[in-house]
């Protein structure tokens, strides 16, 4: 009896140690405070949203990097509708006259990314159809042709797919859903022979990385942020797309496969490597890809698609790691990989390094925070 009792005590103590070391999500108030902190840093540093972005050259501020930031800002506004957030988005949109880089003639998904925020602002006041006239005109010009091969890189899915989904819902027009699906399938199955590798349930960034291209360790090159863009695209589309619409079942299937593939690739410290299958190829913390995976996983748990007991620890570990290792006291974000298309771009990363653009990494972090907040509630 003493042996049994001693064994029971050992098991109990062991379980207590596991619980003590298990990470949990912070309270919603804490999540929101971190989101507001990092956003306040950005809004103070870039107080005039109309100013062009100057790096190696001058670019207008309605390019994709800023568009992704505003996706995050609108997610924050949905949680805490501060007037200053709305004004910052409105000032940016009105300065650009609700237009796209390249005008309505553009077919480039990067140029259409800003349309996601224009649509969000229209949904806040549907008496203002001029807010979405240009983005609708751009997509309608695409629908007027049979061309479906514009999305030759996987980032494009996040930049443009949500626009098609939103317009289809707003105008009750299934043509947007069908064209989005046709273009998505072209990216998945045809570009470069198909950019989705069904063996690993992950995506090559573009045809340049399709096998036989390999990472230094001999594995296929799956770029973290690129796969994060796909996760975000699927989540943002399924958030508004009617479940019976064409493509929905495929999007859900692919999303679930990706979640299963990504979970075991998480690092012990909570982050994901920039090279998902080669931890030694520019290994270390990275914020943007990790944020997008947290965004997707938290959304899946909240919708009851992902097992809470399995995925919640991964979400908590990643979010807590970013809050601890990435967020500066003043709100600056560290370990954000600069623009590019593969693990080596923007390297080396560090806590203090400022990437070439500070906006899209923040947008990714805010999207992650918006779903973590909802989970914590």
Describe this structure in words.
This protein is 56% helix and 2% strand. It is globular, with a radius of gyration of 21 Å. Helix 3 (64-79) runs parallel beside helix 14 and helix 10 runs parallel beside helix 12 (287-302). Residues 1-21 have low confidence and may be disordered. It has a two-stranded antiparallel sheet with strand order 1-2. A two-stranded antiparallel sheet has the order 3-4. It has one domain: Glycosyltransferase (Alpha/alpha barrel). The chain has 377 residues and is mostly helical.
Give the helix/strand layout.
Elements: H1 2-21, H2 28-45, E1 53-54, E2 58-59, H3 64-79, H4 83-95, H5 109-112, H6 115-124, H7 130-143, H8 155-170, H9 174-190, E3 196-197, E4 202-203, H10 224-238, H11 248-262, H12 287-302, H13 308-325, H14 359-376
Antiparallel strand pairs: 1-2, 3-4
Helix pairs in contact: 2-14, 3-6, 3-14, 6-7, 8-9, 8-10, 10-11, 10-12, 12-13, 12-14
Mean pLDDT: 95
Strand arrangement across the biggest beta sheet: 1-2
Q: Which architecture does the CATH hierarchy give at level 2?
A: Alpha/alpha barrel
Task: Name the CATH class.
Answer: Mainly Alpha
Provide the helix percentage.
55-70%
Q: How many H/I helical runs?
A: 14
